[in-house]
Design a protein that fits this description.
CATH class: Alpha Beta
Bound molecules: pyridoxal-5'-phosphate
Number of strands: 8
Strand content: 15-25%
Distance between the termini: 38 Å
CATH superfamily: Alanine racemase
Largest sheet: 8 strands, parallel
Number of domains: 1
Length: 235
């Protein structure tokens, strides 16, 4: 049977099923896992279809693209998550328009976001990105620098530090995938012993989200499994 092109986001239904199954296997409530649709390089029409089917959280890597999506999706109730690299001269629009930022990895960025968060909005929810494997190509604070950064970010008045985020090395074996996600959970739990209790673990993408759920992920960032393969970036 051919898939009808107007089929309402088949990707969303499939991903939700896989999330529910992985949550059951981990004895977790599927409602404790937030699905963030990663909109990077995706046409606004596929995103709109998923939103109409109930996708409530959208992840954006690039500000310009986020602005285009926001115009195309105006009027739809959505939580906006910034998940891209943050430069310090671009923090203001992020502080003004997003609900969450997952990629805080240095104090200067956090201080700017806090200072620029409009007074009429609730504090900006943030995760600290951790570079679990010390990969030179990736952003994120080194694990040994995390406690000091977390304490400093938690003290900022207009931010709500919610948890940790990681983009671990790509692994094909589920045991290896789980290893990295477990590392992030352990870092989160170690902060709790330090008096900083954080509820969010932003981890798991199209290729590894079942392993992330097994290790306690609360926020999955999923692009291609939801919207189809991305066209190669033009930037
Ligand atoms: C692109 C991206 C994702 C989603 O990747 P998929 O493999 O398409 O699910 C998740 N997180 C970040 C930070 C990304 O840049």
């Amino acid at each position: 049977m051919l898939t009808a092109p107007q089929n309402p986001s088949p990707g969303l239904a499939r991903v939700r099923e896989r999330i529910a199954r992985a949550a059951r296997e981990a004895c977790r409530d599927p409602a404790s896992v937030t699905l963030i649709g990663v909109a990077k390089s995706q046409p606004a029409a596929s995103i709109a279809r998923a939103i109409d089917d109930g996708l409530a959280d959208l992840g954006e890597n690039y500000l310009q693209e986020a602005e285009a999506h926001a115009r195309a999706l105006a009027g739809r109730p959505l939580r906006w998550h910034f998940i891209g690299a943050l430069q310090s001269n671009k923090t203001r629009p992020v502080a003004e328009r997003f609900d969450w930022v997952h990629t805080v990895d240095r104090l200067k960025i956090a201080e700017r976001l806090s200072a620029q968060r409009p007074a009429q909005l609730p504090p900006l929810a943030v995760c600290i990105q951790v570079n679990l494997a010390g990969e030179a190509s990736k952003a994120g604070v080194q694990p040994d620098q995390l406690p000091a950064l977390a304490r400093a970010v938690a003290a900022l008045p207009r931010l709500a530090l919610r948890g940790l985020m990681a983009l671990p090395p790509e692994e094909t074996e589920i045991a290896r995938q789980r290893h990295w996600f477990r590392e992030l959970r352990r870092l989160r739990d170690a902060l709790a012993q330090d008096g900083l209790s954080l509820d969010a673990l932003s981890m798991g993408m199209s290729g590894d989200f079942e392993a992330a759920i097994a290790e306690g992920a609360t926020h999955l960032r999923i692009g291609s499994a939801l919207f189809g393969p991305r066209p190669p970036p033009v930037r």
